[in-house]
# Entry
Amino acid sequence: MKTRITELLGCKYPIIQGGMAWVAEHTLASAVSNAGGIGLIAGGSAPIDYLRDQIRKCKEKTDKPFGVNIMLMSPNADDLAQLCIDEGVSVVTTGAGNPGKYIAAWKEANIKVIPVVPSVALAKRMERAGADAVVAEGTESGGHIGENTTMCLVPQVVDALEIPVIAAGGIADGRGMAAAFMLGAEGVQIGTRFLASEECQIHPTFKELVIKAKDTDSVVTGRYTGHPCRNIKTKFSKKLANGEKDGSLSPEEFEQITLGSLRKAVVDGNVDEGSFLCGAIAGMVNEIKPCKDIVEEIMAGAEKLLAR
Ligand code: TUI
# Structure
């Protein structure tokens, strides 16, 4: 399947892996790239030496293009942004902010720049700033989210921009991909489906929570902190949601108890203190498979529907 996204990024399939903080490391990223998509390594709030090492290890595992996600709220986003230039990364996606100040330098270094945006307004600003494409991310996504849904956001961003649009949020199979294409997207970003992949290095407890999740098992916490995040329902995330609702947890206390909670989920599988970030589509993810099988199944399903 050829679209402006496969042409832009030089990949076989227009599927980009989500830049999931703590989750997206070189084993997963190289597996997605080797499967024909674009794998991403998440910068998150990682130290620069960690990210450099991950990029180099990824290069050893794949000769296909792959990218890095820069989380713009990270205190060392400036250093990580420069590292992408120094290491000759093919693609950068960004999240949780406006990457405007980095775009010129990335373009100068021949990096393809794809900001993840939750609104039409930010999408337009990114196009004007020189982005090559955008990911329009609906509120169905895992992690830090905006308010609008994929179904509403994607066609509005498509109408507002000339550059290609990648849809994200609630896409985990060929039906979701075909639907996104019907809305005008030319690619999809997929996160949650890859959590349940063989190559994904998260704690087994995290994978089990994804596989066992039902349609109603995700919850958004932290709206009152200004950083709403979608999680799998656990005792911990329900405690956060209730504390937010009934006022028994102040925003400051919320920030305090969620500090370090991504690591506790991903590395330790700690269900009492970890934040298991995950999309609303987890209810449809029921089996661990290699990334290659996941990508090929999604592509085959989408192509069949789109050919009708
Ligand atoms: O960034 C994501 N998803 C993420 S980042 C993350 S790590 C984190 N942990 C705790 C709190 C916050 C982040 C986990 N998941 N997706 C892309 C995304 N970007 N979603 C929403 C946004 C966004 C929100 C506001 C982008 C820009 C923005 O405002 C820009 C501005 O300054 O106008």
